[in-house]
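User: Can you help me understand a structure? I only have the sequence.
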Amino acid sequence: MKLIQKDGIDILIQNAKNTPRMAVCTYFSIDKSEKYAGVYTLFAKLLLKGTKTRSAQQLADIIENNGIETSVKCKQDYVKVSTLFLNEDFDLALSVLADILQNSTFDEFEKEVFKLKGEIVADLDSPQMKASDVFIEGIFKNHYYGNSYAKILSDLDKIQKQDVADVLTQIMSAKKVISIVGDFADEDSIVEYFVKNFNFMKTNETVSEIPGIKSFSGDNGKDRIVKVVKNDAKQAQVFQGYIVDTQFSEDYPKIAIMNNLLGSSGLSSRLFVELRDKQGLAYVVRSALEPLAHSSLFYFYIGTEPKNIEKSLLGFKNEVQKLVSNAPSDVEIQGAKENITGRLEYFSQTNMQIASIAGYDYIMGLGLNYEEKYKKKLNLVTGDDVSKMAEKYLLNPSMISILAPEEYLKF
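Assistant: Let's start by predicting it. Here is the structure, written out as tokens:
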């Protein structure tokens, strides 16, 4: 992937010969907390709902009739607007993309607010989603990252259409990048096209107003536990998590391997083998690592019989202590490295995947061709490194959310 900077526009470009479809991703940095929880979510839902020159139906017809795939994704740290199209539809697809990014009217605001309320209510009817929502709000308490579904639901009626329109103005004033992968004859002509037709994508290096999160202190130095009563739940939902360092740190590749060993590698992970296979505690058990710009989140999840809640939490604790006390073997470490790099390869095959990864790395500040640098760092991780990560992060106070019938929450 090559970076070309011209007339203030940052363009990531890669020629993928003999591929029938081009992928273009535009990324915009989010540097401010939401005015109200849910503003960014509504923005993503409304961006494709009509422009000053095309109605929502006209946009839908053009996209559908020409096999163009256009989507909007809004995460805590960025907005991504992407399009995938046949090579011969280059001009049409990108004219639509430019129209959406410059001229969206957000005219279906009331309709989308109503729909979002219904979607959130339906999502929170899921016990796992409810427990997850409480967990996220608790571990990121008083921070923008903690804008849970429940918080969005309480704020939706405060949001005005202008608040959503202001998001477009805001991201257009921030850092931006265009990432394109496809089969094209002339790199220079692609660059000139964007300079001429996407001059609104001139980037700005802004200072984020979102505060960083270095750690989670719990409640008076102890675990923060939130219990959610659901008396008709057949299965308990348990989340336990920690704040860990970001992708910018030297710790991150070590944490990634720790996560793989403990619970993200499926049937071979320690949690799966111990809590599900040996003890029969889990229907589902795993760990996960979610990187963000201002922190990263590591957590355990288990779905279990309500009577096994305390056993499950003890199981998490025991697996952490084993990792702290005994460094994993070279064989286990190598298996984790191969699992992670294999997944990276698997999700870097298509033009859209390549464009998405490059754009994400760039907008997050990780730099050009970060994946290759990351693989090299992974290869340097040792068993002792992983033990130190478990000791450094997983012996700290944690956030725990538990959903179960009331009789099983009396502890």
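Now, to help you interpret it: The longest helix spans residues 309-325. The radius of gyration is 23 Å. Let me know which part you'd like to focus on.
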